[in-house]
Amino acid sequence: MNPESSPKDTAAPPSGKTQLRVGRLVKAHGLKGAIKLELYTDDPAGRFAPGATFTLQVPESSPWHGKSLTVREFRWMNSHPVAFFDGVDDRDAAEELIRAILWIDQDTQSAPAEEDAWFDHQLVGLDVVRDGQTVGRVIRVDHMPAQDLLIVRMSSTDAHAEAREVLVPFVKAIVPEVDIPAGRVVVTPPPGLFEDLAGDDGDEDAEQGDAEQGDADQQD
After folding, report:
1. Which end of the chain is flanked by fewer CB atoms within 10 Å, N or C?
2. pTM for this one?
3. Run of H or E residues at 122
């Protein structure tokens, strides 16, 4: 799954636009400025076509801060996606860009053209459904180096209890269905991820009560 997301620490895009994260620069490759990519898109050939221009998310101390980056060439090398960019002609220049995140402008009214890809704003607010029951709501999407996470605020029957938040890996095995029109995501979490769901404690209390009753019967 590839949720293309809005940045948290870059300048606001023009009205009616959002910025989508499509890749990260991870390692200089060779001596001619090539850089290996970590892709956040199912359409790398389209996103990284020659002439495609990206906004850069880099530290303020970077010489590339406030600048954009334009693709000169995109190719696969030993099964790794690699790109060459205008103005990045040697390894030293490539090293300055390592860990930079690449963003593009996207019309907020349009849906991602890629299968199984959603904007963050489409996911936030969706009900989270497990075994046919609504157990919480998506409050944000966190983008980590290894994978994306849905942050779910769990439903609580106790009005005075603080709502618990659960980090759900946004992968097909755990989130098999995203239904934007229905306003929900379906989850099939592994044991332990939602261990405090309503009903779990009650089951444990019931088992404890049965055990205590059994001990009392033996004593009688």
Report:
1. C
2. 0.49
3. helix 120-123
